[in-house]
Amino acid sequence: MTEPQASRSRGDLHGRPTAIELVDAVAALLRDVVPDHLEGALRHQVRIAVHALEMVSRELELGPVQSRAHRARLAALGAPDDRALAGAIRAGEIDTADPVVRGSLRADTRDRLLVANPQWLPPEYR
After folding, report:
1. What predicted TM-score, i.e. pTM, was given to this entire model?
2. Are 125 and 72 in contact (CB under 8 A)?
3. What's the DSSP call for residue 94?
4. Measured between alpha carbons, how far is residue 126 from residues 16, 36, 45, 70, 80 in Å?
5. Per-residue pLDDT for the chain (126 aa), expressed as one digit of tens each?
């Protein structure tokens, strides 16, 4: 069985290349080939586009697991969503000095940075 057929037989409707593989291929082209043919502002805009594609790739890869963990953290804090959590913190109903709350907020921040730009995290948090 070929690789795309094997992917579909495991329940993957779209097979290969996956969305992550496609995004990574475009990012590689824009990062590794295109800048050699550009100058100035357009070259900078391509770098921004590469960064955006890399974020999309990381979100596609990490997002589902991160979203489940985020929902579990919110539930543990008794908040249905981020807006409710922020409101409860502002109202003083949730104590940000509580180690559980701090741990939850740190985990959310880490997960967001892992997608936005993992280089902003110290190596031990990646």
Report:
1. 0.79
2. no
3. S
4. 28, 31, 27, 17, 27
5. 344 444 445 567 889 999 999 999 999 999 999 988 999 999 999 999 999 999 999 999 999 999 999 999 999 999 999 999 999 999 999 999 999 999 999 999 999 999 999 999 998 887
DSSP code string of 16-77: SS-HHHHHHHHHHHHHHTGGGG--HHHHHHHHHHHHHHHHHHHHHHHHHHHHHHHHHHHHHT
> With contact defined as beta carbons under 8 Å apart, do 63 and 115 qualify?
yes
- How many CB atoms are closer than 10 A to CB 27? 19
| Residues 2-8: contacts with CB under 8 Å, at least 24 apart | none
Q: Average pLDDT of the chain? A: 91
Amino acid present at 53: L
> Which tokens hold the place of 71?
């929902």
Here the tokens at position 101 are 């709350």
Distance CA 101, CA 107 (A): 10
- Left if phi > 0, otherwise alpha if psi is -120 to 50, otherwise beta: which for 43? alpha
